[in-house]
């Protein structure tokens, strides 16, 4: 299990001398800036060289407790982007690096004795010791005072204008001022060890070993003409089962070499005081305090599987040096540095976490088709996508598409998908979106235009908003319903339009009950705020208000549970007669059925509360009642919140069991959302941030899933589908921005075919409009002076 620790209880904090607010003028020959750098790794050394080069009058000292040639790990990978920054900032360092770089383009993925190679990626690496030597030389040339075998003295903030804490993941500076920086350190699930081989791999190599103890993986890449970095990684439980916890360093190294003997060509592995460790993600609320600033691993870490540690530290140094030059004061410079770097680091950490979790859950993917497995690995961080992989290696990508079943020229998102008796012509779903525009629960002209436009926009499936099963089950007075015949007739008008005017597009209904989140204002008048007048009583699994100012619901009695179950069944019957093609049961986002599933909102002591099995009981009873009246050939899906984003709530493991339970009762797919269950949730937002939960359910259970949540581009959809992380992708806001999102995605990819059919009256617009010329004529002739 992951363990998150908020640092700040260190005894050092109580006796720390305070950081100061820049006691000296930041520049000037009469009073040169005095800079103390704690830590002689690449980030600290490069910061020293840059600051000294920009102003030779600066007095810069680097304290490093280890020897000059002590280092941990072997090779360092730098991106072209980082190298470009180095080239512009210090050509001397860039030229020295260039002389020692090993460059290559390929990634090899070896799994079950099959190797798949993808090219066009572009890597550059060199030995970590060589990198340090280059930076040592440059610092000495510039006049930086390097002090090895020396702990940084106390009181540096009082004796120096600027203190740069580049003292790594175990930063004592960060701990000293933990009450200000407020670090959070999360320990993850795998053990790994840094080693080296005495030959160069000819590609970045990922090799999977399925042992009697569990799955192990090798990450390897060349960093010199005669050497490669080798990282061996496995889940904690596999590490224990294999007995590595009882082996010394030499025995561990020998055992690893045996397990991956084929990849290593029978050669031994080398260590460098190597030890098994677990990766820890470091996040800080602040990066500076007075004249003390964090840099590199002291400020943030990102998992080694995307090769970002040294890269981030070097980029931090570049940004810090630039901000010190550009800003009038030290305070403004440190504020600008953090503002510039924090979004970049956050994005990298999200990508690194996605990559790390992919390897943590590697066992889920072992039975994927071989090329899909390779594609899934390559796109695991979401930094590499289907579209840019097509540019890097079109032959590899085409082979993956053929294995997946894409007809020639057909992007993965435009392949069909079957749910029970319904075949969707593509993988795009217009996600349910509450519109709060009904009158007495009756959908009107707005809904006809809203859903009709999106149906003609090309999506395979268009979903209604949550349609309430009773008047008391509404979220707001503007919510649509299916608890009267008049409402059902209004919905039939809409389904008829979709079937007549957008043939090939399916329309689904989502049925739900608001539970404790009902009787509130329209979203734009005050989301989740109780009505000022005209409130109706609320019911829920337990008598717990959603927010402190929310109405407290009544805990449902057995008789009320029966009534609500019958309301769902009656609404499902009306939905069937109204002509909907698919029905989704809403068990997410803290509404009534979701409130039964989460231990945070279900405190019942009867047969409907307690264990997960008991918390599932009422939602499953409702599902069974609906399934019994819903036509057998039409599919049913269930939307769930796969995590509550809160301590003690639904976990990813719970979500897998919830999905299994609904599938056992006849659910055809699980629509995997997250959160909105408790008001004090802490979601980890980001691109496609909910997709890992859908991925886990799909690959742990084999149940079809719908992924949803910040999926915004057709490239994301293609990537997720082809990697086998989801079967369908539901998009909400993109369809508000562009009702014809799916058809435009087809046009932008040059696709015409059965997966994206333009309505006949619109076919003249099926090609992207021409735009004015924006490029200037190129010179035809250049004459010498």
TrEMBL record:
Q: Which GO terms describe its molecular function?
A: FAD binding; FMN binding; NADP binding; NADPH dehydrogenase activity
Record Pfam families: FAD_binding_3, Oxidored_FMN
**What domain of life is recorded for the organism?**
Bacteria
Where the record annotates domain FAD-binding, the positions are: 161-349
Gene3D superfamilies, sorted: 3.30.9.20, Aldolase class I, FAD/NAD(P)-binding domain
Q: Which InterPro entries match?
A: Aldolase_TIM (IPR013785), FAD-bd (IPR002938), FAD/NAD-bd_sf (IPR036188), OxRdtase_FMN_N (IPR001155), YqjM-like (IPR044152)
Q: Where is this region: Disordered?
A: 1-32, 754-785
Sequence ranges assigned to domain NADH:flavin oxidoreductase/NADH oxidase N-terminal in this UniProt record: 413-746
Q: Which PANTHER family does the protein's record reference? A: BLR3436 PROTEIN, NADPH DEHYDROGENASE C23G7.10C-RELATED
**Which protein are we looking at?**
Oxidoreductase
Q: Which organism is it from?
A: Streptomyces swartbergensis
């Amino acid at each position: 299990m992951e363990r998150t620790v908020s640092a700040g209880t260190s005894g050092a904090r109580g006796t720390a001398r305070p950081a100061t607010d820049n006691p000296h003028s930041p520049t000037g020959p009469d009073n040169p800036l005095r800079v103390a750098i704690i830590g002689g790794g690449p980030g600290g050394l490069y910061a020293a060289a840059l600051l000294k080069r920009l102003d030779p009058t600066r007095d810069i000292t680097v304290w490093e407790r280890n020897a000059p040639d002590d280092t941990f790990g072997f090779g360092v990978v730098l991106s072209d982007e980082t190298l470009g920054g180095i080239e512009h900032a210090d050509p001397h360092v860039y030229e020295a690096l260039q002389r020692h770089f090993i460059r290559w383009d390929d990634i090899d993925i070896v799994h079950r004795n099959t190797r798949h190679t993808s090219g066009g990626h572009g890597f550059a690496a060199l030995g970590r010791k060589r990198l340090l030597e280059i930076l040592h030389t440059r610092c000495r040339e510039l006049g930086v005072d390097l002090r090895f075998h020396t702990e940084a003295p106390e009181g540096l903030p009082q004796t120096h204008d600027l203190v740069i804490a580049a003292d790594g993941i175990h930063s004592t500076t960060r701990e000293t001022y933990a009450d200000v920086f407020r670090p959070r350190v999360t320990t993850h699930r795998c053990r790994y060890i840094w080693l080296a081989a005495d030959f160069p791999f000819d590609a970045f190599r990922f090799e999977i070993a399925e042992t009697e103890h569990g799955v192990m993986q090798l990450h390897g890449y060349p960093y010199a003409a005669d050497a490669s970095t080798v990282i061996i990684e496995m889940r904690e439980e596999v590490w224990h089962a294999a007995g590595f916890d009882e082996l010394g360093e030499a025995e561990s190294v020998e055992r690893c070499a045996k397990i991956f003997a084929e990849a290593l060509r029978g050669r031994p592995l080398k260590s460098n005081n190597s030890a098994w460790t677990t990766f820890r993600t470091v996040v800080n609320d602040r990066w500076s305090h007075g004249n003390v600033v964090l840099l590199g691993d002291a400020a943030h870490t990102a998992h080694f599987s995307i090769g970002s540690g040294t890269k981030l530290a070097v980029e931090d140094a570049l940004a810090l040096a630039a901000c010190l030059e550009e800003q009038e004061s030290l305070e403004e410079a440190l504020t600008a540095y953090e503002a510039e770097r924090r979004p970049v680091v956050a994005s990298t950490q999200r990508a690194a976490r996605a990559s790390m979790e992919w390897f943590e859950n590697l066992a889920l993917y072992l039975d994927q088709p071989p090329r899909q497995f390779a594609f899934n690995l390559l796109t695991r961080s979401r930094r590499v996508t289907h579209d840019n992989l097509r540019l890097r290696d079109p032959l590899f990508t085409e082979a993956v598409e053929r294995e997946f079943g894409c007809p020639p020229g057909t992007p993965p998102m435009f392949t069909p998908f079957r749910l029970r008796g319904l075949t969707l012509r593509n993988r795009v779903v217009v996600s349910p979106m509450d519109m709060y525009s009904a009158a007495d629960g009756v959908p009107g002209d707005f809904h006809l235009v809203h859903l009709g436009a999106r149906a003609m926009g090309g999506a395979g499936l268009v979903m209604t908003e949550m349609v309430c099963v009773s008047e008391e089950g509404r979220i707001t007075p503007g919510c649509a319903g299916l608890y009267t015949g008049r409402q059902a007739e209004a919905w039939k008008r809409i389904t008829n339009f979709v079937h007549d005017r957008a043939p090939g597009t399916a329309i689904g209904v989502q049925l739900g009950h608001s539970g404790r989140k009902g009787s509130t204002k329209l979203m734009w008048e005050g989301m989740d705020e109780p009505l000022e007048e005209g409130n109706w009583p609320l019911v829920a699994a337990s008598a717990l208000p959603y927010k402190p100012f929310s109405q407290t619901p009544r805990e449902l009695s057995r008789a009320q549970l029966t009534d609500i179950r019958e309301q769902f069944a009656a609404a499902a019957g009306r939905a069937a007669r109204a002509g909907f093609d698919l029905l989704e049961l809403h068990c997410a986002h803290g509404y009534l059925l979701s409130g039964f599933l989460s231990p945070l909102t279900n405190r019942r002591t009867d047969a409907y509360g307690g264990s997960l099995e008991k918390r599932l009981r009422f939602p499953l009873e409702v599902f069974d009642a609906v399934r019994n009246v819903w036509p057998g050939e039409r599919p049913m899906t269930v939307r769930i919140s796969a995590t509550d984003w809160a301590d003690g709530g639904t976990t990813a493991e719970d979500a897998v069991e919830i999905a299994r339970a609904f599938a056992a009762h006849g659910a055809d797919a699980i629509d995997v959302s997250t959160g909105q269950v408790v008001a004090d949730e802490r979601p980890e937002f980001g691109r496609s941030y909910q997709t890992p939960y859908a991925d886990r359910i799909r690959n742990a259970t084999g149940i079809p899933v719908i992924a949803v949540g910040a999926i915004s581009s057709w490239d994301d959809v293609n990537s997720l589908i082809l990697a086998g992380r989801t079967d369908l992708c539901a998009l909400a806001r993109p369809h508000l921005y562009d009702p014809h999102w799916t058809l435009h995605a087809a046009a932008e990819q040059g696709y015409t075919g059965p997966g994206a059919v333009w309505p006949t009256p619109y076919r003249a617009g099926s090609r992207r409009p021409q735009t004015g010329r924006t490029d200037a004529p190129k010179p035809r002739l250049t004459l010498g002076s």
